[in-house]
Specification:
- With 257 residues, the protein is α+β, with helices and mostly antiparallel strands.
- The protein has three domains: 41 residues, no CATH class; 128 residues, Kinesin motor domain (Kinesin), CATH 3.40.850.10; 79 residues, Arc Repressor Mutant, subunit A (Orthogonal Bundle).
- The chain is built from nine helices and six strands.
- A hairpin with a 7-residue loop joins β3 and β4.
- The longest helix has 17 residues.
- Keywords: Actin-binding, ATP-binding, Motor protein, Myosin, Nucleotide-binding.
- Belongs to the TRAFAC class myosin-kinesin ATPase superfamily. Myosin family.
- InterPro entries: Kinesin_motor_dom_sf, Myosin_head_motor_dom-like, P-loop_NTPase.
- One of its GO terms (cellular component) is membrane.
Length: 257
């Protein structure tokens, strides 16, 4: 019975009895095993990453799970409402440990924001933003000891909404983990794009880039740490990356040079 009561508490400020660390952890534990991964703490929404397979979660266009997250939808609605009523900028801040699900949650929030104020996923604005995130994912994400899709770059996403309608989105990137390029820890990898390039470049492209005959094992910045590779998946992601650059009007060879 106690487990059921804890699982039904949707906002920790309404916890019965003393508000202790043990009570909070017990409630989050009960809700987690009840498949309730979002819990309010007043105006703050706390999310516990269930580490479930959700397909390809880190691309904006595939964030189909957004419709199953009413808690995040309420955050979006409240931000749009506050901005519309007050005229003041609103901020949604995602904070947590590596692997806590910040990038995935940001994809869901943006998808829902486009559904609420941006005309949905069929608009050119959405397609360009989705393409931009796919490009940035390869350039700024890497495998770490705790997270195979760890974002090693900070994002500030500026969305301009007027009269309840989204009309401009800008992505600012900060704090790229530059040391990862030249020095890797055991069981970690360099940025995804390097492995994807080696798997996906044609022989002609390899020759143009002076990469003919090279592999992970004879490139000093890639033969450290985890040297395993799923070439089929990396090649597929490289093709998707090039397609997204094309959507943005950027020649892929201009980037890989």
């Amino acid at each position: 019975m106690r487990h059921t009561v804890c699982a039904e508490v949707q906002d920790l400020i309404h916890l019965p009895g003393p508000l202790t660390e043990d009570a909070v952890l017990r409630t989050l534990h009960a809700r987690f095993f009840n498949r309730e991964y979002f819990t309010n703490v007043g105006p703050i929404l706390l999310s516990v990453n269930p580490y479930q397979d959700v397909g390809n979660p880190l691309t904006l266009s595939s964030a189909h799970a957004a419709s199953r997250c009413p808690q995040l939808l309420r955050v979006v609605h409240e931000a749009v409402r506050q901005q519309s009523e007050t005229g003041y900028p609103q901020a949604i801040i995602l904070s947590g440990e590596s692997g806590s699900g910040k990038t995935y949650s940001s994809m869901l929030l943006l998808r829902q924001l486009f559904d609420v104020a941006g005309g949905g996923p069929e608009t050119d604005a959405f397609k360009h933003l989705a393409a931009a995130f796919t490009v940035l994912r390869s350039l700024g994400s890497a495998k770490t000891a705790n997270n195979s899709e760890s974002s090693r770059i900070g994002h500030f996403i500026e969305v301009q909404v007027t009269d309840g309608a989204l009309y401009r989105t800008k992505i600012h990137c900060y704090f790229l983990d530059q040391t990862r390029v030249i020095r890797l820890l055991p069981n970690e990898k360099n940025y995804h794009i390097f492995y994807q390039m080696l798997a996906g470049l044609t022989q002609e492209e390899r020759a143009q880039l002076s990469l003919a005959g090279y592999s992970l094992h004879n490139l000093c910045y890639l033969n450290q740490g985890d040297v395993s590779q799923n070439e089929t998946e990396d090649a597929s992601r490289f093709e998707a990356w090039k397609s997204c650059l094309s959507v943005l009007g950027i020649p892929s060879m201009d980037v890989v040079r």
